[in-house]
Amino acid sequence: MNLLEVRNLRVWDGRGGSVLVSDSSFQLKKGSCLAIIGESGSGKSLTCRAIMRLNGRGLLQSGEIRFKGVDLNELDEREMRSRRGKQLYMILQNGMRAFDPSSVIGVHLRETLARHYRWNKNETTEKLRQAMQSVRLQDPIGILNKYPHQLSGGMLQRVMIALALLLEPDVILADEPTTALDTVSKFEVVEQFIQLRERTGCSMIFVSHELGVVRKLADEVMVMRAGSVIESGTAAAIFSNARHDYTRYLTSSQRKLNDRFQELMGGAGIADR
Ligand SMILES: Nc1ncnc2c1ncn2[C@@H]1O[C@H](COP(=O)(O)OP(=O)(O)OP(=O)(O)O)[C@@H](O)[C@H]1O
Q1: Most buried of 73, 87, 198, 227, CB within 10 angstroms?
Q2: Which CATH architecture has domain 2-272?
Q3: Residue 204 contacts residue 222 (beta carbons within 8 Å)
Q4: For ligand 1, is residue 56 a contact (CB within 6 Å)?
Q5: 118: CA distance to ligand 1 center in Å?
Q6: Using an 8 Å Cβ cutoff, are 27 and 238 in contact?
Q7: Measured between alpha carbons, how far is residue 261 from residues 50, 73, 76 in Å?
Q8: What's the mean pLDDT when you consider all of the chain?
Q9: 204 Cα–ligand 1 center, Å
Q10: Ligand 1 lined by 36 (C-beta under 6 Å)
């Protein structure tokens, strides 16, 4: 069953008129992970942000984004806000951008949870402590009292994953969540994403340049180039039997770079199973 259906999504610059994403159509099956791959500037981030309706004011979008029977493109900002967080949850490449730099981490987490649950202060602290421990963050209470700049990129990503564990969103959109991390943190964060899927049963859209990570996580893969979807299919088909030359180029040129990562991840990815 499709949880999300995007039809003829188009994103364009309202000032200059240039089309940045054209006529994209794709589906996200319930419980599945769809990876979006493609060269830099191909429209992967704009596609994710269009689903969240978080593209900047200058950008306009049309088409249909059907989620749980409702077209998100038709909703006003208030209705959209009520869906962000609990139903649609976005994890960014740079964890620093997800948090207010002037407040300690705990403030953001408590405010977000208060929007969706009626837990008192102690209950919230306890839930956060458990969730943060489960993503292997040591000293959760200490972390709640730290500013974002006092934590590493990998820690911030794990804080975002801990929050997702508590919110149990239907769809997680992760935009290059491992790109800025060193290899060891990457390994740990990918493991946490796998567990997040297992524990919450969420569906996921995962944008990444790193095909080693994609092979580990994705069930389906969609390839974008210059704002268009040029190919999509199961991860196994895309990695071993792509129809499009560009997809073959992309997967073969990344293969060498990813060998070391696959080694660290313990070998086989989805396509090899
Ligand atoms: N706010 C904006 N106004 C105008 N153009 C934009 C805006 N944001 C992005 N673009 C342009 O839209 C195109 C697609 O950008 P997008 O960020 O979606 O690429 P991407 O595939 O995610 O790339 P990367 O892998 O480098 O993150 C790029 O050419 C980019 O310069």
Answers
A1: 227
A2: 3-Layer(aba) Sandwich (3.40)
A3: no
A4: yes
A5: 38
A6: no
A7: 31, 38, 43
A8: 90
A9: 21
A10: no
